[in-house]
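Annotated sample (chain length 993).
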Amino acid sequence: MMGAIYTIPATCSFVDTLAAGLLARAANDPMQLAAMTVLLPNRRACRNLREAFLRKSGGTPLLLPDIRPIGDVDEDALSLGAGMETLGDATPIHPLRRQLMLARYLTRAYPDRFTIAQALPMAAELGRLLDSIHTEGLDLARLDTLAPEKYAAHWGIILDFLKRAIARHWPTQLRTENALDPGAWRIAMIRAYTEHLRANPPAGPVIAAGSTGSIPATADLIKTVAELPQGLVVLPGLDRVLDDESWNTHIEEGHPQAGLQRLLDHIGINRAQIRDWDGVPPPGDRERLIAAMMRPAGTLHRWKEEPLEATCFEDVALVEAANLAAESGAIAAIMRAHIADETNRDVCVLVTPDRVLAGRVAYNLARWGIAIDDSAGRKLSRTPVGAWLLLLVDLLDGEFSPVALLAALKSPLAGGGAAWPAEAPPYRSFVRLLDRHILRGLRPAPGFTGLHHALNANRHLDPAMRDAIRAGLRALEKIFAPAALAASPSERLRALALLAENLAAAPPESGAQRLWSGDAGEAAADMFSTLFEHSDILPDLDWSGAHAVLESAMEGVSIRPRFGTHPRLAILGQIEARLYQAHTMILGGLNEGAWPRLPEVDGWMSRGMRADFGLPAPERATTLSAHDFAQGMGAAKVILTRSKTRDGAPAIAARWLQRLDAVCECANVKDLRARGEKWLDLAAAMDRPDAPPCATDRPVANPPLDARPWRLRVTDIEKLRGEPYGVYARHVLALKPLDPLEAEPDARERGTLVHAALERFLGTFPTGLPMDAREQLQAIGEKVFADAHAHPDVYGHWWPRFLKMTDALLRHEREWRQGMQTAWAERDGTMEMNINARAFTLAGRADRIERRADGWAIIDYKTGAAPAKNKVLQGEQPQLTLLGAMLLAGGFDASLGIAAPPDALAALAYWGVGGSGGALGTTAFTENLDTLCTTARADLETLLRRYLQDGMPYECWPDPAYRLPDDYEYAHLGRIAEWSSEFDDETQGEEAA
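Output written by the structure step:
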């Protein structure tokens, strides 16, 4: 005898309506209610039903029915109780253990093709395929029926692996483990409970509610319940409006009713026999709208033949945003407005499968201090604890690269350890010193050896500071030492946990207190326990592989806050929203590919292979998505949202929105978008300034006279002429840009090395050249470049160039030195000047000064491009001529060790020593040098008199003809891009090029 089968439409809250009906059937007899057994799809639905009973009873204590989850698609935790004894002592294999074992299968079968990092995602996907096979009641042995010649060659390779490793060996492996695949265990448990119900019908009512029977075992259970003497089945959202022609002949996969139609056929009952659950009203306007939107393709002509009334569209709005940021902002504005009325106790929920959208909405709500309950939680890897653990693995894998090191050490979780040395700076100060003095610029050599080498190579640190930093490095070295010694997979994981705990210690708190506390910390500790438990099956791991294993383990752990979220707001995924209805439902992310998702590409079975094997088509998931959408449309107030673009590309509206547009057109309803527009306007207004934007003025700095720079270097003078604001920033504000971390080798490193080599060579041979000058120069270069061995990119790129350059340089040297008496390398000089009745000092360094037979010479080595000759003669680039003026004024006398200043200049020259082909380019000035240098000094005095007086501003880039470097370090401080069209044009031109 068939029991009663009912439905609760989408327009009614499923759990509230179900609870009210069960209370009515129990006739307020607590024992009758307690005698009932209610089977629901998942644990969340069970919790929602318990809360519904509490609401319906007004808080009065109740003896609740036995409420159990039967499991549905994507639910892996069941507790059906009765009947489980038939399963024996086999337990479901831990998903992580299965993933690790399958990954090991892959790496052993294809050692040259898969690393553990590559195998783990494939193993996770293979695990999902295994669960799908069990869910559909199929046998792995059927893999042998698939003929590889039917498919493309690469599918044949995959099929061969599935047959050999999975069909033949995997079941044996599971028997050895005394375990079942999670999917097999779930199906076995459902079937065991089904058989128990058949053999031992309960004395009390059994109600199977809320399931669409999307998997065969669940459908069999529902059918069994329907056949029980006191069995009741309550279906979610059966379409009570759709005409019989559409229902009987046109419903296909992808329609929201396809799953329910399949279930009714399986039970052996037709739709006309389904009754409304107690208290369900007749179909209303919203149900008619849902039915019309979802009408099968074969009867779409009825849209025009039977147009809907305008009342069907009441309390439905469409928010169509330009992009994801605008969509998330509008949703947050809706939610914020919903809770503005504190007397309104209704709940507002966002339902979306789009995790990026959900995250952005949560972020926008946080602007108002609102913490929202997100049912998906956060993956452990995205919590501070999880992210820090992964950073530590990256640090070990990258051999202490500066970026990874600072990211790990600057984390709030890093405390420096329980025994931070007293002679070192406080931990946080130490990390800042490490950042500023050791890790900037080129990447040090790997490991702590490289860090100590970089510390010793820094000439700007005083000995006390160097010793203090060294003490901190040694303390860190002790903390990291066990990880460096770990070899086996289990040793690496234990060393990582120990390292994290030791580094987290910050007295008086221990590392364990700081690291393993709180929701995320406890979850991380449990994760490590799980990893230790299953470490026996881990393959050999380097730290890169350990990162992959750790990340895979974290993917299976979600963190949900236990308290502190807003009671009237929530974000739910599709699964979590099933059987749940709030007063206001926001259905978000309604674009093709997001909701509904595109059919997933299976890396293990092609579409044809799945069909031949007996697995359902990927479109089955679209049926569930459509049913979830239809259920959400039943809320009292519905707001549909989408963005027109995603990741910079146009997005296609979800098929259901396209249908809604068509239904609206037939009904002559045109204001759905207008209803949603106000939320877009409100969200935009929150970020719109009160006043209209105005152009930024050119920055002008006017420091007091005493604060102005009364000492500059010759390299500053060209900048003072063309971009005085930069001189102000560097010398008045003392702002100097930090070098980037892990900088690429550039002209500065090249110039430093070449200058150092030539300085030593000239210091060794200040007069004539030896017979073996080439060997001597290269030997000196080898010593200079030895330090660059710590930076392979520098050494590998610049050392061959240096070798090529030496022959051309020595040929020029032999010719040049014929008139040279002696030479000095890298000499500092100064020139005192009276500017506006105050002393000003110009400082400079000459790469090379020579005493020649016909006078004195200054040579400047250029590893980059030398200034154009006319720029020097016109005074636009005065570095060399000012050095000449300094020499004539006696500014180098002390460093040269001469008693009287030189009386005449014979030459000023640039030597290009950085050519990639080894050529040496020279630019020499030999005529009218005294006049040229005197003019340069006079021009400088005029320039300084302008700026070294009260009231003269340091303008930002006053002369657009002066070309700023592409990487000009003060461009952001001067806000040049905001006020300068010339800068914009230049930048756009460079980007276009």
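Annotation: The domain at 315-377+566-686 is CATH 3.40.50.300 (Rossmann fold).
Annotation: The chain has five domains: 4-86+205-282, 94-180, 315-377+566-686, 380-559, 705-955.
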